[in-house]
Amino acid sequence: MKLLWAYSARTVWVRSSTTTLAMAGLALVSLILLAVLMLGNGLDRALIESGSSENVLLLRKGATTEIASGIYRDQAHVVGTLPGIARTMTEQSLAIPELVALISLAKTGADSPSNVVVRGTQPDALLLRPQVTLQEGRVWQPGTAEVVVGSQIAKRFLPGGLGTSLKIGKGEWRVVGVLDAQGTAFDSEIWGDVNQLMASYGRDSYSSLTIRASDQAAVQQINEIIGADARLMLQVKHERDYYREKSLTMATFIHILGFTFTLIFALGATLGGTMTMYGMVASRTREIGMLRALGFPRSKILAVFLLESLLIGASAGVLAIGGGTALQFITLSTMNWGTFSELAFRLTLTPGSAVTTMAFALVISMLGGIPPAIRAARLPVANALHAPGR
Amino acid sequence: MTIGTLIVRNVRRHRLRVILTALGIATVILAFNLLVTTVQAWYAGVEASVPNRLITRHAASLSIHLPLAYRDRIASIDGVTGVTYANWFGGVYREATGFFPQFAVDPASFLDLHQELVVTDEEREFFLSDRRGCVIGRRLAEQYGWKVGDVIALKGTLYPGDWEFVVRGIYRGADASADETWMLLRWDYMNERRHQFDPDRAGTVGWYVVRIADPGLAGRVTKTLDTEFANSSAETRTETEQAFQAGFVAMSGAIINALKLLAIVLNGITLLVLANTLVMTMRERTRELAVLRALGFRSSHMTALVTGEALLIALLGSMLGIALTIPGTHLYRAVVSSKLGNFFQHLDLSPGTWILSVSITLCIAVCASAVPIVRLLRAKVAEDLRYVG
Fold first, then answer.
1. How buried is residue A166: exposed, middle or buried, by Cβ count under 10 Å (0-12/13-18/19+)?
2. ipTM of this complex
3. Interface contact flag, A260 B34, Cβ < 8 Å
4. pTM of the model
5. Domain locations in chain B?
6. Binary contact (A256, B90; C-beta < 8 A)
7. Domain limits of chain A?
8. A98-133: per-residue pLDDT in tens?
9. Is 80 exceeded by the pLDDT of residue B342?
């Protein structure tokens, strides 16, 4: 068996002109598959990871997004006094009403402005969302026209950096800090003081209210109390579920696209593999005859050719994963169809997607290698020895 | 025997390999056509826009509304021949996945300005006389099996509560690019209910649609209009309908660019597949090609021989590819519309697309033949004559 391994490996090496082309083709196809998987991972990370499992989001009944929702001050006050809400060190309850609005902001180097989410909130929102930390500068001073921006916003919309001004609503707002939200949707948001922003937008109601529950049992309790209170007319959602629903359309689109094209490419790549291996068999007919004459059984010949094509597949898989590692540096910004706002996310390589890609490359090369390997194993010894060529 | 016959005979020598290569090319063409069709579907809104219409919205954001009072001031601007307005209604039918665009509009002026939405005079009259009436597109009606007289119940997201609308008409698009999945309901009905639950925001509109006498006036009217409302409580931002639609497309720019990049990479795969076949074939024929050269075939003949074979295989692949693309597009459209509803329409294969894919493939065939040709012409005839396997 060791001999066979060496034989396969060396054949692939010696006939590198043919095998390189086949390998490159398969590697490219695997890379495309991997890129689609990474796109999905990045999107999941940006949206679903935005939610924390202990947080619940309150929206007006019927509203599907924060932007469409409205919560009045008195409702927010009632909710703030409910039992089961986690508290900060200063005994403030972690129930934060927020204003969420869209603004059009000119993107550096683009002709048309993009819609960006502006979130009016309190500095305690950083406690509510532990994945968000201050990367640079400081938090806004409540009651002033100061904002902090997500790292993606800083990169794409703020060429001047800290200290520059943004026009939001009717006024100019000074940027005093940059947030790092670890690739979640908050990286594409602008945060500022809720009361200042409400005044600026001429609104008297909040958009949503986010609560950190003290434990899972409290979530159920809060849900029941709010459902029973006729004054509130609010719906309670787990934050993670909310973000998952928002990303549904986009995720479905990427899955359909990925599935369709991977299917087509898999077909193409199998054909390519079959062709290459048939070529290998044809040009080595005499060699195969010789091996058989020396006493190698048919099963060994079959194994040799399958090994060869698996070797090509494995190398292609490794190349594709290598390419995928490089793709991780790409950040895409797109419109989130759930909210019509800008969302930036990074292509993310997960161990799962790497394994899938490798398996894909191996299966494809295996499928492509079977028919030629069978042909090789079936060659009659006498005829093969007389074949032209080496 | 001419070079042409020689090429055809050569192609027929290794049928299995040629068929596999052609199939490989065909799958790439299928994928390419589907990709281009997807990208084009994105631009459907831009394609459907009319040059003599402008869209005026709030300068800060589409989510902030404009006062209704602007209508008359816009109408009085020189060069403006019609004004209408609309709100994004954002209702949900049954569950959140049943998405289709709903606009609350001023019925008479909206239909007047959007001549591409064709309704009969009778349907128009019914719509104008029923405050709870609505007009829906033909495609939407087919999708849900709605007929004139049916009641559509929506759950409001932006405008809370349960809403019911009676279908008073089904419009057709005047041409293929028109969107036939809209639902138009009456702004005055919506506004009446808004007075009850959200009086602060009643009497405001999402955006204005402005018709101008001549597309050439667009620049001037845009400027006059935005200057008119500058420094007011609600500043405006006006652009042509095309630019407005293109703005939405531009926001998805990265995904579109990724798809475009993928389309280019695909052609790289064709190159690899074809080059692979050619290299393999030519290596097998090393000896006989040397014989041909020894017989006096010139470099130009050899080039023609290899390029011709490449082109013939590519052509076969292209034909197969197009044969696959037609049912493939139907299947793809069916899958997309079953999963995504109305987000993607106009997934229709245009002749331009497949012509493009075939011409690119043929160009690639010429490029792919370069590899074996260079190798062939550099080789020494005497050595090649002695070549074994």
1. buried
2. 0.75
3. yes
4. 0.79
5. 3-45+252-385, 60-234
6. no
7. 2-48+246-385, 62-232
8. 998 888 887 777 666 778 889 999 988 888 888 899
9. no
